[in-house]
From TrEMBL:
Organism listed in the record: Thermodesulfitimonas autotrophica
GO cellular component: cytosol
Protein name: tRNA threonylcarbamoyladenosine biosynthesis protein TsaB
Listed PANTHER family: TRNA N6-ADENOSINE THREONYLCARBAMOYLTRANSFERASE (PTHR11735), TRNA THREONYLCARBAMOYLADENOSINE BIOSYNTHESIS PROTEIN TSAB (PTHR11735:SF11)
Listed InterPro entries: ATPase_NBD, Gcp-like_dom, T6A_TsaB
């Protein structure tokens, strides 16, 4: 199988990566939401050069589909759709919370990825290892931190990961006690390398979609729309 380009713009950590049959070929990352629109395409150009890859060598484009930053998701998904159309490539949407949880799923306990959203809520979900892909134990949702912790109260033990877990660690610990473990802050944000790996697996299973069918998954209205009440 040829290479897959991964794009991750759902959080403040912008990253792009290319994976090939041998594994990760190259990755670029930078922190700061204002960098996303400025650095995304220069990063992709640098990535292709470093990986010794051309657009013609790609077999698909995988993009983080949400939930996450409204502006970041729109940029990433529209960019992936545009590149897929121009290069006649299939595109694969990867749930952002799955991309955050995936590197930690081999530990044998449920993994609960948590990201902050604007409006004092978090985006969260719960996954367990599975085949051919992780099993969804709790589907992605948006809720206040205390309510999110209560949704996980039935787990005997769980591994919380993501910057939202650390931001609201006190709330999760108060409700879940010693059952709640916290992953290292190294794993605070989803990475494009994981998006590309998951995309390659889905592509092999024939799970790609056309660019017209790919849409961001916001889970909640953008803040500006909510304030206007429209």
């Amino acid at each position: 199988m040829a290479c897959v380009l991964g794009i991750e713009t759902a959080t403040p950590l912008l990253s792009v990566a290319i994976v090939g049959p041998e594994g990760l070929r190259a990755e670029r990352a930078a922190f700061g939401e204002r960098l996303h629109s400025v650095r995304l395409f220069p990063f992709i150009e640098e990535l292709l050069r470093d990986a010794g890859t051309r657009f013609e060598d790609l077999s698909g484009i995988a993009v983080s589909q949400g939930p996450g930053s409204f502006t970041g998701l729109r940029l990433g998904v529209v960019s992936a759709k545009t590149l897929a159309q121009v290069c006649a490539l299939p595109v694969i949407g990867i749930p952002t919370l799955l991309a955050l949880a995936a590197p930690l799923l081999s530990g044998g306990i449920p993994v609960c990825p948590v990201l902050t959203s604007r409006s004092d809520e978090v985006y969260a979900a719960a996954y367990a290892s599975g085949a051919p892909e992780a099993t969804v134990l709790v589907a992605p949702f948006a809720a206040p931190p205390v309510e999110a912790a209560q949704k996980f109260a039935s787990f005997a033990k769980l591994l919380l990961t993501g910057e939202g877990a650390w931001a609201f660690r006190e709330a999760f610990t108060e409700i879940l006690g010693e059952r709640a473990l916290f992953a290292s802050e190294v794993f605070n944000y989803p990475r494009a390398a994981t998006v590309a790996f998951l995309g390659r697996q889905r592509l092999a299973r024939g799970a790609a979609v056309t660019p017209f069918d790919l849409l961001p998954e916001y889970l909640r209205l953008p803040a500006i729309k909510g304030r206007r009440g429209t």
